[in-house]
Amino acid sequence: MNKHLVFYDGRCGLCDRIVQFILSKDREGRFLFAPLEGETAKKYHFPPKVKDADSLILIENLGSDERIYLFSKAAFRIFWHLGGVWRLFGWLGFFPGFIFNWAYHLIAHLRYRLFGKVVCKIPDPDLKDRFLP
């Protein structure tokens, strides 16, 4: 089973909700998580432009044949991998990214005002192995 790594803004209330949503739907435990501010993100050497954009970043097939998705493409690929009814949203990822990225960037720009800031939570002990530093 392939693992996928989701990088998220560890201070963002919306990002926290997204991580909690993925955890609740990912019954097979395919997704791992790491904050953009953490040590794992530093290992990937993302361009500053990507980190400064407060991106949702998905590394698909962690460890072998890795593919990196940003912005709305990352979100749609996550839906795709969740399967079931969520795969319907994943189909939107087959459209060019610019169609949805304007909305993604608008929400990213307003996310602290709309959803607030959070302090990184300590994961539930049962899920701790799914979070990377």
Search tags:
44% helix; globular; 133 residues; 6 helices; 4-stranded mixed β-sheet; 14% strand; alpha+beta
Strand content: 5-15%
Strand runs, count:
4
Arithmetic mean of pLDDT: 85
**What global shape is seen?**
globular
The total of helices stands at 6
Structural class determined from secondary elements: alpha+beta
- Are there runs of 5+ residues with pLDDT below 50, and where? none
**From the alpha-carbon coordinates, what is the Rg to the nearest angstrom?**
14 Å
Number of domains: 1
Strand order of the largest sheet: 2-1-3-4
Share of helix among residues? 40-55%
Order of helices and strands: EHEHHEEHHH
Biggest sheet: strands, sense, closure?
4 strands, mixed
**Euclidean distance between termini CA atoms:** 22 Å
Write up what this structure looks like.
The chain contains six helices and four strands, in the order E-H-E-H-H-E-E-H-H-H. Strands 2-1-3-4 form a four-stranded mixed β-sheet. It starts with a strand and ends in an 18-residue tail after the last helix. 44% of the residues lie in helices and 14% in strands. The chain has one domain (4-130). The protein has helices at 13-25, 39-44, 48-52, 71-82, 87-90, 98-115, and strands at residues 4-8, 31-35, 57-60, 67-70. With 133 residues, the protein is of the alpha+beta class. The radius of gyration is 14 Å and the shape is globular.
